[in-house]
Amino acid sequence: MKHILIDYMKRYTDISESDLEKMAEHIPVAVLKKGTVLLHQGEVPDKCYFVLKGCVRQYTTDETGKETTCQFFTEEQSVTIFNGATKYTLHCLEDCVLIVGDLSVEQDMYERHPELERMTRKMIEENLGDMHDDFASFMASSPEERFLALQEKRPGLIDRVPQYQLASYLGITPESLSRIKKRAGAPHLRRVD
Predict the structure, then answer these.
(1) Does the pLDDT value for residue 169 go beyond 80?
(2) 172 found inside a domain
(3) Per-residue DSSP letters for 155-182?
(4) For the whole model, what pTM was predicted?
(5) Which of 16, 43, 134, 174 is most exposed, with the fewest beta carbons within 10 Å of its own?
(6) Three-class SS of residue 192?
(7) How many domains is the chain partitioned into structurally?
(8) 193 lies in a domain?
């Protein structure tokens, strides 16, 4: 499975494949069951993740217990939350295979592999740029446009997550999502829980 990480890393560096393989030897892989909570709201994160296989949901819960889905992370996406006690919970929606980075030894890894720090910076810059573009597009679009954009950019996600979580992510009710899906001629979304 680490070949997925190595192929991903190649996009951000010109390090040889053999050097990338040596670097990847020191990176732990975890196989986690569906339902595993990686981080609870209010905890201080000490790990970061890279999804090799599976789907991780990021959500927040308000004082009434209402959950709002903020993001879904799937293959070849990094999952990192910084800045003290988090407002989010990270939850495995599927069985997952994740690269697990320990934030407490991150600096040591950068000292052993200086190119890793440059590569990580490039990845973060790209992710932040994508997030900024996605947020601007989200704010300027109607619920139907959000659904169509999601269907175009991440078509597989629609069949992988429960409809109520997808609706929350899009900022609409499950009933509105059903109507939009019907108008858009989208395949039936699965209903779970």
Answers:
(1) yes
(2) no
(3) TTHHHHS-HHHHHHHHTS-HHHHHHHHH
(4) 0.81
(5) 16
(6) coil
(7) 1
(8) no
